[in-house]
Amino acid sequence: MTLKKPSVVLIDLDGTLVDSVPDLAWVTDQMLDSFNLPPRGETKVRKWVGNGVKSLVKRALTDQLDGEPEPDLLDKAIPVFMSLYEQHACVESTLYPGVKQGLAWLKQQRIRLGCVTNKDARFTLPILDKLGIHDDFDIVISGDTLPRKKPDPAPLLHGAEFFGVTPDKAMMIGDSVSDVKASRAAGFSIVCVSYGYNHGADIRTMEPDAVIDTFAELESLF
Ligand SMILES: O=C(O)COP(=O)(O)O
Ligand SMILES: [Mg+2]
Question: For Mg(2+), which residues are the binding ones (predicted)?
Fold first, then answer.
């Protein structure tokens, strides 16, 4: 399948650029342990990532995707998670295979790049730095940059405005239903990676414009 070449590409972080689950699962289980709750492990955490820290902590405390913990417990657990994750945001996290190559190719095509994640800036920036890809992005829009996160289109529209392009010239690359919904609502095209998190469901069911198995495949898309 070929797509119209965009002027701007905004790229999701967790499950798209970075396999962040090993660190998120470690932090989640340490946080649970401090409240005498049992560990949930990587397989469950992999299904719970993608809607920001508050959602992940709620899911971990209740052991359910749409669980609502006691408000008091949640209020105590969030700062514990934050402080653990601040110290342990990028110990085992890695770039997915092909990411470096794909970013280099996009830049060679003179496409401007931004990163759009639901992760708070205090975690996003050190991870991008440590993995050596911060300088590839002209703008980083984190989960707390604006009042609303993905699936709201606001972060994507903010990115398009920053680059001075209309949404029809912009593309998002992501891994989850939130990325597809935000892109559709913003009028961006959307390419998804097949290997990401997406709460354990196949992203093809959301009918993105294209699905790639690695960033190296971007070269054959447009
Ligand atoms: O859930 C998060 O904290 C971030 O997830 P995202 O990078 O896939 O938007
Ligand atoms: Mg993601």
Answer: 12, 14, 175
